[in-house]
């Protein structure tokens, strides 16, 4: 399941007058998964069940 909306990412890139490589959105999706996993781990290490913006 994708974490990013590919059309929105490509829209932002196009608005900057840039092109989007075919593998960019897949790599971005993996990066988002990594960031979320790290935030979850930080929340758990602080004995919380709520992931907050500060966990990023």
Task: Please tell me how large the radius of gyration is.
Answer: 15 Å
Binned, the helix content reads 55-70%
Order of helices and strands: HH
> What characteristic shape results from the CA principal axes?
elongated
Report the total helices: 2
Low-confidence parts, pLDDT < 50 over ≥5 residues? none
Explain the layout of strands and helices:
Elements: H1 6-15, H2 24-45
Give a structural overview:
It is a single chain. By secondary structure, this protein is an all-alpha fold. It has a domain at 26-56. It has helices spanning 6-15, 24-45. The two termini are 21 Å apart. The mean pLDDT is 97.
Offer a concise description of the structure.
This protein has a domain at 26-56. 57% of the residues lie in helices and 0% in strands. The chain contains 2 helices and no strands.
List keywords for this structure.
56 residues, mainly alpha, 57% helix
């Amino acid at each position: 399941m994708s974490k990013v909306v590919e059309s929105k990412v490509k829209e932002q890139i196009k608005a900057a007058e840039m092109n989007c490589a075919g593998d960019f959105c897949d790599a971005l999706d993996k990066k988002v998964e990594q960031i979320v996993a790290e935030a979850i781990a930080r929340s758990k290490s602080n004995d919380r069940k709520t992931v907050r913006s500060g966990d990023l």
